[in-house]
């Protein structure tokens, strides 16, 4: 399993890094669209859309993404998508802390079908807008989520005692979440102090919000990275599956890799004004 996981990670990096670093915006956007469509397919599967439903849902997501570009790309043009996605994640947040989380049924299930399309469209626009700000910027945005996850893993292993959401993800602890937050803050402070690879998300937030509100903004993003992770865990648990799919050997599915990014990306764009 470890060997498979490492091989898959190397292949993914071999594709993602060159495109992120060197491809024009169009090439980067095409790759992210490819990822987003597969994530939409997995979302539909977790919501138990049977038969050809997941494929149809993925095609609808692709068409919605193409249609959304008619309004333009970039942070200002995509603001309505970011706002709609942010509303969804604010609504979804409390569900991950419920003792007995309930998979949406009826009207709620229909809401999740629609919310998924909005979420994936907003995710695509946010990443493309971030890439338009520069490679360091988009990497710093991704790094925030990765650091929160890495810090949470090691802090949870070392100090974790108090369960964060035992009904959904028994392995996650408050100590781990705090450790992830601390690691983000340390790296962000170092990047700002050293003026490393600017412009980054951290330097942009500082320039627009000032020091105190930058700390609050980064804290909010870390919180919602956890919300995204737990929300997907909730969907998987209630769907009775371990992974969102088997598309990425050793890693599960696409959603398993980007779940924490889904709320963070549009929220980060909104925080930048």
Automatic annotation (TrEMBL):
Catalyzed reactions per annotation: a 1,2-diacyl-sn-glycero-3-phosphate + CTP + H(+) = a CDP-1,2-diacyl-sn-glycerol + diphosphate
TM helices/strands, residue ranges: 6-39, 46-68, 80-98, 110-128, 134-155, 176-197, 203-227
InterPro entries for the chain: PC_trans
Top-level EC class: transferase
One Pfam family it belongs to: CTP_transf_1
Similarity annotation: Belongs to the CDS family.
Protein name (record): Phosphatidate cytidylyltransferase
Source species of the chain: Paraburkholderia sejongensis
Taxonomic classification: Bacteria, Pseudomonadati, Pseudomonadota, Betaproteobacteria, Burkholderiales
């Amino acid at each position: 399993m470890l060997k498979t996981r490492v091989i898959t990670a190397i292949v993914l990096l071999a594709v993602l890094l060159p495109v992120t670093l060197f491809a024009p915006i169009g090439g980067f956007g095409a790759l992210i669209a490819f990822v987003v469509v597969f994530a939409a397919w997995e979302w539909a599967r977790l919501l138990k859309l049977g038969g050809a439903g997941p494929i149809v849902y993925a095609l609808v997501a692709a068409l919605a993404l193409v249609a959304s570009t008619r309004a333009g790309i970039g942070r200002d043009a995509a603001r309505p998508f970011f706002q709609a996605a942010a509303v969804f994640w604010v609504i979804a947040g409390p569900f991950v802390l419920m003792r007995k989380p309930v998979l949406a049924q009826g009207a709620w299930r229909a809401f999740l079908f629609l919310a998924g399309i909005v979420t994936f469209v907003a995710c695509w626009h946010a990443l493309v807008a971030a890439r338009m700000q520069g490679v360091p910027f988009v990497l710093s945005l991704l790094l925030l989520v990765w650091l929160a996850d890495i810090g949470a893993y090691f802090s949870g292993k070392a100090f974790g005692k108090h369960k964060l959401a035992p009904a959904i993800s028994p392995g996650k602890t408050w100590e781990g979440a705090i450790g992830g937050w601390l690691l983000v803050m340390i790296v962000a402070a170092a990047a700002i102090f050293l003026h490393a690879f600017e412009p980054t998300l951290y330097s942009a937030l500082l320039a627009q919000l000032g020091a105190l509100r930058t700390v609050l903004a980064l804290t909010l993003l870390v919180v919602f990275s956890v919300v995204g992770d737990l929300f997907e865990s909730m969907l998987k648990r209630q769907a009775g599956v371990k992974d969102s799919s088997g598309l990425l050997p050793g890693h599960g599915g696409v959603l398993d890799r980007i779940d924490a990014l889904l709320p963070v990306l549009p929220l980060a764009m909104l925080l930048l004004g």
